[in-house]
């Protein structure tokens, strides 16, 4: 199965789609705000567990 990493722009778009600020998104993802900032700036890539959580959030958001 092919899993591609969300790029920094897609992570920021997802957060916008969910209408969350960085702190709220960090709380949902169980990371700190600085981690979300690094993801969105492309300085760090999310771990697999966070990518799966983002995929589930995106799926729910698109169904709404």
List keywords for this structure.
0% strand; single chain
Task: Label the overall shape.
Answer: globular
Amino-to-carboxy terminus distance: 27 Å
Determine Rg (CA atoms, Å).
11 Å
Mean pLDDT figure:
92
Number of separate helices = 4
> Fraction of residues in helices?
55-70%
The SSE order reads HHHH
What summary fits the major beta sheet? none
Task: Give the number of DSSP strands.
Answer: 0
Number of domains: 1
User: What kind of oligomer do you see?
Assistant: single chain
Tell me the strand percentage band.
under 5%
What can you see in these coordinates?
The protein is an all-alpha fold and about 60 residues long. The chain has one domain. Helices cover about 65% and strands about 0% of the residues. It has four helices and no strands. Helix 2 (about 20-30) crosses helix 3. The model has no long low-confidence stretch (mean pLDDT about 90).
């Amino acid at each position: 199965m092919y899993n591609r990493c969300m790029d920094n722009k897609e992570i920021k778009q997802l957060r916008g789609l969910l209408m969350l600020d960085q702190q709220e998104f960090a709380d949902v993802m169980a990371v700190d705000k600085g981690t979300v900032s690094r993801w969105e700036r492309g300085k760090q890539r999310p771990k697999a567990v966070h990518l799966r959580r983002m995929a589930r959030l995106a799926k729910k958001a698109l169904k709404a």
